[in-house]
Structure formats: C-alpha cells, structure tokens
C-alpha cells in the first residue's frame, strides 16, 4: 500500500471501481457481511467507505436496511436533463449579463485548472475501463459552478448548482459505461468559455445545453445495452 494510503482509501478505490464498472449493479443492496468477506475488510472500515461513496452519490442509505448502489433511472435522467438545460441555461444567461471582470478572471482560472488536469489519473487511470479521476471531477465541477457564479440571482444560482450535483452520479456512469470515443469534452468547455467571455449569451446557452444533452444521450444508449430493465 502506498505511503499515506489507509485501508479505507484502498477499499474506497475498489468499491468505487466496482460500482462504476457495473460489478456492483445499480440498485443492488450492499450487505455488510458479504462485502466484508469479499473485500477482506472490517465493518468499521466498510461503513466509513460507504459514507464517502454516499457523499459522491454512488450509493445511498436505506433506513434500517443499510446501503444500496444508487439506481439508474432513464426517466429521472431525462427529467433532470430537461430541467438542467432550462435552469442552468437561464443562470448562465444571467451570469453573462451580470458577471464582472472578477467573474471573468475566476472563470479563466477555473478553465485553466480543468484544461491542465488529466481526465484519468492515479487509480482511475489503472482501472479497466478507465475512470474519471477525482482531481478532474473537482476541476470540472469548479468550472461549471464558476460559470454560474456570475448570476446575481442567489436562488436561481443555488438551484442550478443543486441540479448539477444531482447529475453527478449519472456523469460518472456515463464516463465509465458509455464513454463516447468521438467526443472532445475539452473543446466543448473551451467553446463555452469563449462564448461567455465574448458575452454571447445565446451561443453560450446553446453550447451548454448541447454539452449537457450529449452526456445524457451517451448514458441512455449505454443503459439500453447494459441494463435494459432500467432504461
């Protein structure tokens, strides 16, 4: 085990990988005894790890029944996508109208961080199939949240951010089980940035909506192939 890496860290990596690759299926109940035996770990380490996974939205707690892998729902994904396109689009339009030079500077910095952070890395790079790295996931979230930060309507901005957070589990599944080999996500982010800095609200909103929609299309196709009962 690498220096500074705890048993909980190692278990987190293994469980996260098994969830994102489908070894642990969406909706599957996670039974403590079976997991402890399979992964060779203690109950305490397992509980700590499941709490961390719940914070990422990859598992969810059930009252008096422990945890289960977060189910995927095509209907929920479609509704979430439609709502995000409308709400995030409105928030970004307001951000472009309201944002000042400080917002522009912060957006440039967030994009630079995203651009310079490898999509896969560490344990994510070694996994088969590759998994998005936590560093990239954080940089990606930072860029999109900064894009919204120029909006001066606090409620609108907060609601848009909460919808993005709700979509995180779907984004992670899309990368792992439905990775779009022809997609240039970096180019999509760069185009959104350029439109925002040019104060072209119509173009920025159109690009953002297409960016959101493509992830959904990719995952829905993967769900039909891999989990037809959930699509």
Reconstruct the topology from this structure.
Blueprint: H1 7-20, E1 29-30, H2 32-39, H3 43-55, E2 59-62, E3 66-69, H4 74-98, H5 101-116, H6 123-126, H7 134-149, H8 154-166, H9 168-177, H10 185-197, H11 201-226
Antiparallel strand pairs: 1-3, 2-3
Helix pairs in contact: 1-3, 4-8, 4-11, 5-7, 5-10, 7-8, 9-11, 10-11
Write a structural description.
This protein is mainly alpha-helical. The protein folds into two domains: 7-69, Winged helix-like DNA-binding domain superfamily/Winged helix DNA-binding domain (Arc Repressor Mutant, subunit A), CATH 1.10.10.10; 74-230, Four Helix Bundle (Hemerythrin (Met), subunit A). It contains eleven helices and three strands, in the order αβααββαααααααα. A three-stranded antiparallel β-sheet has the order 1-3-2. Helix 1 crosses helix 3 (43-55) and helix 5 (101-116) runs antiparallel to helix 10 (185-197). It is elongated and about 55 Å long. The termini are far apart. The model has no long low-confidence stretch (mean pLDDT 87).
């Amino acid at each position: 085990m690498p220096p500074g890496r705890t048993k909980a860290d190692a278990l987190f990596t293994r469980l996260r990988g098994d969830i994102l690759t489908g070894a642990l299926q969406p909706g599957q109940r996670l039974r403590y005894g079976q997991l402890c035996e399979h992964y060779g770990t203690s109950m305490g380490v397992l509980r700590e790890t499941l709490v961390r996974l719940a914070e990422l939205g990859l598992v969810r707690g059930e009252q008096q029944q422990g945890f289960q892998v977060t189910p995927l729902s095509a209907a929920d994904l479609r509704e979430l996508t439609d709502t995000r396109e409308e709400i995030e689009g409105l928030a970004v339009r307001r951000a472009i109208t309201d944002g000042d030079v400080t917002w522009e500077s912060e957006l440039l910095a967030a994009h630079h961080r995203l651009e310079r952070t490898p999509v896969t890395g560490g344990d994510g790079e070694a996994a088969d199939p590759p998994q998005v790295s936590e560093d990239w996931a954080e940089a990606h979230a930072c860029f999109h949240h900064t894009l919204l930060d120029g909006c001066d309507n606090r409620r609108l901005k907060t609601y848009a951010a909460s919808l993005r957070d709700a979509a995180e589990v779907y984004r992670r599944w899309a990368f792992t089980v439905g990775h779009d080999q022809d997609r240039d996500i970096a180019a999509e982010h760069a185009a959104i940035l350029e439109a925002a800095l040019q104060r072209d609200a119509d173009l920025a909103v159109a690009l953002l909506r297409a960016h959101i929609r493509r992830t959904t299309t990719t995952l829905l196709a993967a769900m039909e192939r891999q989990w037809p009962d959930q699509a």
